[in-house]
């Protein structure tokens, strides 16, 4: 498949794929290409929508597995939320369809794959790269919060990279649409803020915390409260036991930003619009939001 040529047509084609919100898709609307990856509940394939020639990622989920793990409700919420979000740093969900055995999600194709793998490959990112990613995620989260959507599960595994090198939030499995303060346990421990570990009320500032953890992991290659035992991670989160190792060398401006995000009192965390004005972001982030590599 001529992916690069297709990507140049992205803007035009994406409007075509999403044209007619009420269109009922079927598998016959797509040519299926190579597998892109395997998730917990099914497979993801490169696919081409026949009418528009638009390249997408088709996620195929098995209903039996969704039922077994009792995540149908979560999937419904994820689809409902993600399909309404339009932001360059949020993976588009164009639509969905299903047959007797499977549910199919029509997703924007992220040509450069998983951020997690890039981080593993590089061990840690340069300050320029980390700042570019953190700024683009802050902009995406400002957009989400403006729509009363809290993501609640920001971590490297949930981020993909687009053809230009732009970051895309890809997984809204734990997100909520809310006007109230929430009290639900979710996500993996390393990225959870104190108020969620302790199951007290939380709000959109949980995403500021997770972005702070992510920023640390980008720069050091490991999350800040990592420990062998869950109970130790738990204790370190609750105590905000934040340490900056001597290697790799990280600027004091970056450490200052992280320290302002990883604050126990959620109302004292640096607001995302202020993050965008922080000297470390201003001096390091690519204004285009695109890190070329
Ligand atoms: P998931 O089920 O979402 O964990 O997806 C399984 C794997 O498929 C991921 O780890 C990615 O490598 C790949 N993948 C999922 N969605 C996309 C996408 N939209 N574009 C490119 N690759 C994807």
From TrEMBL:
Known EC number: 2.7.11.1
Any Pfam family hit: Pkinase
Compartments, as annotated in UniProt: Cytoplasm, Cytoskeleton, Spindle pole; Nucleus membrane
Record GO cellular component, one term: spindle pole
Positions bound to ATP: 40, 59, 108-110, 157-158, 171
Active site positions, chain numbering: 153 (proton acceptor)
A GO MF label: histone H3S10 kinase activity
Name the UniProt record assigns to this protein: Aurora kinase
The organism of origin for this protein: Parasponia andersonii
């Amino acid at each position: 498949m001529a992916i690069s040529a297709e990507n140049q047509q992205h803007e035009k084609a994406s409007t075509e794929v999403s044209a007619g919100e009420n269109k009922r898709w079927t598998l016959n609307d797509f040519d299926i290409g190579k597998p892109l990856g395997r998730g917990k509940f099914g497979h993801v394939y490169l696919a081409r929508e026949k009418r528009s020639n638009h390249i997408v990622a088709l996620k195929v989920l098995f209903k039996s597995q969704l039922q077994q793990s009792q995540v149908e409700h979560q999937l419904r919420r994820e689809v409902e939320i993600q399909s309404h979000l339009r932001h360059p740093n949020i993976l588009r969900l164009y639509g969905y369809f299903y047959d007797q055995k499977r549910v199919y999600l029509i997703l924007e194709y992220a040509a450069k794959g998983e951020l997690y793998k890039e981080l593993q490959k590089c061990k840690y990112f340069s300050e320029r790269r980390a700042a570019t990613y953190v700024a683009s995620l802050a902009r995406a989260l400002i957009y989400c919060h403006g729509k009363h959507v809290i993501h609640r599960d920001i971590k490297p595994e949930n981020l993909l990279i687009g053809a230009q090198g732009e970051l895309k939030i890809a997984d809204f499995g734990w997100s909520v649409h809310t006007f109230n303060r929430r009290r639900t346990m979710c996500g993996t421990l390393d990225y959870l803020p104190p108020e969620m570990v302790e199951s007290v009320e939380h709000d959109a500032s949980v995403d500021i915390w997770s972005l702070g953890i992510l920023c640390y992991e980008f720069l050091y290659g490991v999350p800040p409260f990592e420990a062998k035992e869950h109970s130790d991670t738990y204790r370190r989160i609750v105590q905000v036991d934040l340490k900056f190792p001597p290697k790799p060398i990280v600027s004091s401006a970056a450490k200052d930003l992280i320290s302002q995000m990883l604050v126990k009192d959620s109302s004292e965390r640096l607001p995302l619009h202020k993050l965008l004005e922080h000297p470390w972001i201003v001096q390091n982030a690519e204004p285009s939001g695109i890190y070329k590599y």
